[in-house]
Each structure stands twice: as structure tokens, then as C-alpha cells.
Design a protein that fits this description.
Elements (H helix, E strand, L loop, with lengths): L7 H6 L6 E5 L6 H11 L4 E6 L3 H7 L5 H9 L8 E6 L7 H11 L2 E7 L2 H7 L8 E5 L5 H7 L17 H17 L3 H5 L3 H24 L4 H12 L8 H8 L3 H13 L3 E4 L15 E4 L2 H5 L6 H13 L5 E5 L5 E6 L3 E6 L4 H11 L6 E6 L8 E3 L5
Parallel strand pairs: 1-4, 1-5, 2-3, 3-4, 10-11, 11-12
Antiparallel strand pairs: 6-7, 8-9, 9-10
Helix pairs in contact: 12-13
Length: 392
């Protein structure tokens, strides 16, 4: 079945805009499928698709005279007197592609849709040359709502977190789905597979592609064993504050090198760090960022995660689609796990108690946040408690 991602509607609206639609995210998150769906939805007559993983497609754009690209396509029957759609997959594989797209964008009536597996590449190569000519759409592994859609489960999507409420009946219906989501994550191929061994094999294949293509080709990583060790250490520290010096000492690398590797991992959609919430330079606040993986299945390939860590990482992957996340912690220890858009506080507890909500709001009120929820995974029910699977 041809499932639609939540981001599809925004991309479809952008079809009528001259700007280049740039779809970026980790490989195997469904970028190519989205492009094919957008081509089907467009009423432009001439629609072309090129995959830069194919050498012949790469060679077509790897020339100095960009007008020859148009000449060749015209000889193949494309009418450039009318609007044309050109879709290019995996743009990070061709260094000169931003220059090509900029020239053709400026001189011909072309709607470009392009995909890339790395914001690291796009930010560095596209930022200046395509200023004002592009809009970036970031795509991640499926959120839990999309996970349910891919499993043919009909539900009402959560429009905003202010309307979050608990529903024990729905919980009973989709508990197994949520447990699987917390363990195997949201890569579309993984979600569609019904076999556990196959799920794990697909995750290993995704990891291999990420390391051998994205990291080696784009960033020219020389110390791959050390980088893998850093990833293992990060997986074991999900939801914890980053101590760069400690990690550097453990893997025997400089602090700057570890910093650079973490920057790379974050800008290739592998991990995400979130900052501390701050109204001002409050001396009570701990300044380090906390780390999460952008897919639970990937994280579990690197460490034996506790069910609590998997649950907290899953909540992160559900919440970050709704806004900007931060956390808050006093030096004395009390902590708010997540704050979204500086408006709503969340405490994450596998087995929650009413006292958890009281503690949460006592701390939230110190930073002028009036609304909060306790998010749990196990059976319980009290005011302002919400089962984690309701965020979808």
C-alpha cells in the first residue's frame, strides 16, 4: 500500500512554489518514496527523475556547460517551453550539484525536487549558493502515528500537545504496537516487516549504508573504530547530559575530535542533542546538552538499553515533531525531562505515580511553566497522567 507521510501535505503545497523543494534526512527514511508520490500528485507534464547513486545520472549533471544538460534533455523529447519538473535523488553525491541547480533554476522554468541524506552537506554546500531559492523539509523515521498508519490502524492524529488526554481503551488496542515501536523504531522498511529477525537485519543494513556511504564518502572519516565506540557510549547514555571530556578520555581522542564527531552525527540525522531551558543566566542550571537517538531501533543496535531508556528515547522521537525541545535541571538534582516550546513540561516515568506530577509542577512553576504532563508506559491512571502511546 502507498502510505502517505504526515509531511506529504506540506510538500504537495510546495509543488506550486518556484523554490526548490529540498527533502533531507537519514537514508532509508522514505525520501525517494515521497518524491515519487509528489511526481504522481503534480500536474506538470514532463517529470524527470534522476538517482545520483547511478553513475550515468551523475555523469549527466557533472559537466561544465550546464546548458548542455537542457540540450540533451530536449533531444530526448523534453519540452522546455513549458514548465518541467526535475527530481534529483541523493544530491550529496555530486559536489557541483548546487551550482547546476542554481543556474538551471535561474534560467529555465523548472520545478526542482531534490533529496539528500545529510544536513551536514546541505548546510555547507547549499546555504549561500541557493539563498532564497530553496525550502528545506526534514524527514525522520516514522513517528508513532505514522507507525500505526503503516500498520493499517485508523486513529485520530494528535493536533497539538495542549489537547493531550489519556484513553485507556485505545491503550489496550495498540499496546503491542507501541512496545514494538520502542524496540525497533520507525524506519519504514522495519515497520512493514513482520519478522523480528528481518527487522534486525534491515537495521544492520541501514547502519552499514550510513557508515560506509554517508560517513565515509561525505565526511571522509579516518577513525571509524573510534567513531563506533563513541556511538556505543552515546547509546549507553541516552537521556543523560553529554560529558565530552569523559568520552574523549574513554576513546583516547582529543576533546575537539569528539566534539566534531558528535556534530557530524547530529547533522547526518543520527542523534539529536537538546539544550537546557533557560530564562536567563541562572546559576542553578546545569549547562550540558542531553543526547537522544533519532531512531530507537538504531540505538538498540549499539547498546543493551533498559526498557526505561527505550521509553524515554521513544518519547523524545514522538515529541520533537511538535516543537523545540529542551530540559531543565537544578544542580541539586531535580529535573524536568522535556519542555516543549518553553510552554509545556513533561516527566517521563515507566511506572508513574501522582507524586511525580506534583514534583514536576513544583519545579515547572520555578521557570513560569503552568502546564505539564506525566508520561508513562505501564498501567496507571491519575489526573494529568498520559500513556506514552497517545502522542501520535
Amino acid at each position: 500500500m502507498n502510505f502517505k507521510r504526515k509531511i506529504f501535505n506540506s510538500l504537495e503545497k510546495h509543488l506550486t512554489v518556484k523554490q526548490v523543494s529540498v527533502i533531507t534526512g537519514m537514508r532509508r527514511t522514505g525520501k525517494t518514496t515521497l518524491v515519487k508520490q509528489l511526481m504522481e500528485a503534480s500536474n506538470i507534464k514532463h517529470k524527470l527523475f534522476f538517482d545520483l547513486e547511478k553513475l550515468e545520472d551523475r555523469d549527466r549533471f557533472n559537466i561544465r556547460n550546464y546548458d548542455l544538460i537542457i540540450t540533451k534533455l530536449s533531444e530526448e523529447g523534453v519540452d522546455f517551453s513549458k514548465k518541467v519538473m526535475i527530481c534529483i535523488d541523493e544530491i550529496q553525491l555530486l559536489p557541483n550539484i548546487p551550482s547546476v541547480i542554481k543556474y538551471l533554476y535561474d534560467h529555465y522554468d523548472i520545478k526542482f525536487i531534490v533529496t539528500g541524506s545529510s544536513s551536514y552537506y546541505i548546510k555547507n554546500k547549499f546555504q549561500e549558493s541557493m539563498a532564497g531559492r530553496k525550502k528545506i523539509f526534514e524527514i525522520y523515521p516514522l513517528d508513532f502515528g505514522e507507525y500505526l498508519t503503516f500498520n493499517n490502524f485508523k486513529f485520530k492524529a494528535l493536533e497539538n500537545l495542549e489537547s493531550l488526554v489519556n484513553d485507556t481503551f485505545i491503550k489496550e488496542e495498540i499496546q503491542k504496537h507501541y512496545n514494538d515501536y520502542c524496540t525497533y523504531g520507525g524506519f519504514p522498511e522495519v515497520v512493514l516487516s513482520k519478522d523480528i529477525v528481518e527487522k534486525k537485519d534491515i537495521l544492520q543494513d541501514i547502519l552499514s549504508s550510513y557508515i560506509n556511504i554517508d560517513l565515509v564518502q561525505i565526511a571522509d572519516i579516518k577513525k571509524m573504530p573510534e567513531l563506533r565506540n563513541i556511538i556505543k557510549l552515546l547509546a549507553a547514555r541516552i537521556g543523560s547530559k553529554l560529558d565530552i571530556s569523559k568520552i574523549a578520555n574513554t576513546v583516547n581522542l582529543s576533546r575537539q575530535t569528539v566534539d566534531n564527531y558528535i556534530y557530524l552525527l547530529e547533522n547526518t540525522y543520527f542523534i539529536k542533542t537538546i539544550p537546557v531551558y533557560s530564562l536567563n543566566a541562572d546559576r542553578e542550571i546545569v549547562k550540558a546538552r542531553k543526547v537522544y537517538f533519532l531512531d530507537n531501533g538504531i540505538a538498540t543496535q549499539f547498546a543493551e538499553l533498559s526498557s526505561g531508556s527505550k521509553f524515554e528515547n521513544a518519547i523524545f522521537n514522538q515529541l520533537h515533531h511538535f516543537g523545540e525541545l529542551s530540559y531543565y535541571q537544578l544542580k541539586t538534582g531535580p529535573e524536568i525531562d522535556f519542555i516543549i516550546d518553553k510552554k509545556i513540561a513533561f516527566e517521563v516515568k515507566e511506572t508513574a505515580q501522582p507524586i511525580d506530577y506534583k514534583k514536576l509542577m513544583n519545579l515547572a512553576k520555578k521557570i513560569n511553566i503552568e502546564k505539564g504532563f506525566v508520561l508513562g508506559k505501564n498501567n496507571t491512571n491519575f489526573e494529568w497522567f498520559v500513556w506514552g502511546g497517545m502522542i501520535r
